[in-house]
Amino acid sequence: MAGTLRRMRAIMVKEFTQLRRDRTTFSMIIMIPVVQLLIFGYALNTDPKHMPTALLVRDHSVFSRSIVSALEESDYFSITGSVRSSDQGELLLRQGAVQFVVTVPEHFGRDLVRGQRPELLIEADATDPVAIGSALGAVDGAVDSALGRDLTGPLANLRQNPSPVDVRVHRLYNPEGFTRYNIVPGLIAIILTMTGIMMTALAMTRERERGTMETLLAMPVHPIEVMAGKILPYVAVGYVQSFFIIFVAEFLFDVPVLGSLWLLSAALVSFIACNLALGFTLSASAQNQTQVIQMSLMVTLPAIMLSGFLFPFRGMPEWAQVVGSAMPTTYFIRIARGILLKGNGLVEIWPDLWPLIAFMCLITFVSMTRYRRTLD
Amino acid sequence: MTGEQFAIDVTGLTKIYGGRAVVDGISLQVPRGRIYGFVGANGSGKTTTIRMLCGLLKPDRGGGSCLGHDLLSEADFIKRRVGYMTQKFSYWEDLSIRENLAFVADIFGLDRVRERVAAALERLGLAARAEQLVGTLSGGWKQRLALAAAILHEPDLLLLDEPTSGVDPKSRLEFWDEIHRLAAAGMTVLVSTHYMDETARCHDIIFMSEGKIITRGTAAEVVAQAGLTTWAVTGGDLVALMGKLKPLAGVDTVAPFGDNLHVSGTDKKALDTAIAPYKSDAAHRWHEAAPTMEDVFIHYMTAAKGGG
Known about the structure:
heterodimer, A: alpha/beta, abc type-2 transporter like fold, 2 domains, five-stranded mixed β-sheet, 5 strands, 9% strand, elongated, B: alpha/beta, Rossmann fold, Alpha-Beta Plaits, six-stranded mixed β-sheet, four-stranded antiparallel β-sheet
């Protein structure tokens, strides 16, 4: 009995000693709870406020002004600008620059006074049904309270049921509000992030762990050749994964594929390259495969949480949005959703495509500088 | 590179790790077509020196040329003309022998890859196992593959870092025969080893300790330069005798060799004086022996330790 305890204690002591010396495991033990607490505690919010809204106002009566300000007072809408045509508004929705476009038609005030129930059109980017739910629920109340203030005196009789304004809501791109429409395209980005980073990181550290790196370095091969040779096979793997997901999405989950798959393929190149180069970079500072898996976990975790994949990006506090904006996954999720659900073309995805290309160049450059040509 | 006579010509080569000079100002001239043996204890700087020569490590000080090309600025060219066999086996274990060789041939941009690989397999007797995954091979076969891969591009200089460690005597013998065939064909070979019997198979020996070259020359010269007098003792309680002899002044090293005890010292007079009382002991038989490379090795290692 005493022997058992002593042996157990010996193993425990050894375990703690090793743990203390294994810095990546140690930092993982600290980092994962901290990161998770911060993200789940502060960043996650399924009830986003202050969502960017564009105005298309064709009527300059007191009523349209007070409805607009009532919408803003509801805290859900934040007017970021006005557009001159519905085409312009649609572009902003497609690009994801705004969540809503509110259209006040011509003669709105006149028709309201005449009791003709003019339309108030609210177009919503419904790709993420969670993000817009509460905002749309607040519209009627905001309109009523605005008119309640304005319709006084002889107009008071208009304050009756049905409401003097006919609020029309168009849920664009996902009219039925299917969550899976939003999740499945995002999943392409998440799966590529997880597997892409890990695959190259492992491929490189495997060489180091097994000692074959020394043979490789002793041979006349340029870092770019090593990197390209290491990465390109996994680009192919990334494509196979992506198209498998799209295939399943379309035929099993009925997710619409509206845009061009060629365009998606083109965007995929830079996104896959981003992840692979990131894995390559991580591998430069890892000693073995276990370490590099832990490191890639610490990178992919925030990418999954803060990219807008699970929770509306606009619901996150500013700092979390800044962190999210520093990750390629965030941009590719928007591109994938845009092309598949909104049928976006190059013009619409460009605001998200160029950061992705910039990331690709930056990460590739960093990974090249981290590559050691010697064993030093 | 017109007619340069040395395959390796370096001066003051130094590598510092954590403030300690692991290799400390080594100068080395190795003529073409010779087999140079690198001898020294673990951690004496052999591997680090070899790695600096093939461009795997950057020297902190010193420099020179390898095959007429500058060590610091022309590492890429040197890599093309040097074959390097690492201390720890480092080819791809999840590839077959043939796949490994074909890979190396492609990296070096060789022509007639199939032919060359087939020839290399034949030459080192690997043909029958060509399709076997390398991870399933035993030490001797791995060593043959490593050599085959290192000479596949017909290098001018072959750097072998303890190529025979963990290999059985017959494989070692065959290995050295191959090395001599290569040197006869004009290849320069620098080989590090732990095995003292292998020093006799090198044209010249470089003896390293604590990052410095202690002595060099042919095996016979190195033994002679050590200036050792060695007595071999047999019979009686040699373990007890060893304990008694070790602390004596004049006795530098006492080491058991089978049923022999080798007692060596550099100062013949002092040694003879020290052992005189024990020679009269009838239990032991003493006779003067020619010092071996092993005695010299132990002598230098002991001296290095004593000298701090």
